[in-house]
């Protein structure tokens, strides 16, 4: 993984915090907006520093939630009006553009 600095982490955190309720972004969307080389960096940041962020609004490019937290993530999204069809979020309908 590319070296990730504090400025990168804060940029990713700010971007995720800016995603409004009822919208989602992909890991790749966040990485591109933050100028990072890989969506995996966003995943790493979320795994290590997301307790105070709306982490549930970040999904895979396939529209699927994180495998290990899919039930909780879909539950939180559903509470915001984001509905899944067979476990997949329709990015065309719910995607937030930075």
Automatic annotation (TrEMBL):
It comes from the Bacteria. GO terms for biological process: DNA repair; methylation. The keyword Calcium does not apply. Gene3D superfamilies: Winged helix-like DNA-binding domain superfamily/Winged helix DNA-binding domain. Keywords: DNA damage, Methyltransferase, Transferase. CDD domains: ATase. The keyword Transmembrane helix does not apply. GO terms for molecular function: methyltransferase activity. InterPro entries: ATL_DNA_repair, MethylDNA_cys_MeTrfase_DNA-bd, MethylDNA_cys_MeTrfase_DNAb, WH-like_DNA-bd_sf. PANTHER family: 6-O-METHYLGUANINE DNA METHYLTRANSFERASE, ALKYLTRANSFERASE-LIKE PROTEIN 1. This is DNA methyltransferase. It comes from Mycolicibacterium fallax (Mycobacterium fallax).
């Amino acid at each position: 993984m590319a070296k990730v600095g504090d400025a990168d982490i804060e940029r990713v955190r700010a971007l995720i915090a800016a995603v409004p309720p009822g919208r989602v972004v992909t890991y790749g969307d966040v990485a591109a907006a933050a100028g990072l080389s890989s969506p995996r960096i966003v995943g790493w940041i979320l795994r290590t520093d997301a307790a105070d962020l709306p982490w549930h609004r970040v999904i895979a490019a396939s529209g699927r939630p994180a495998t290990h937290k899919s039930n909780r993530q879909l539950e939180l999204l559903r509470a915001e009006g984001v509905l899944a069809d067979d476990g997949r979020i329709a990015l065309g309908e719910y995607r937030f553009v930075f």
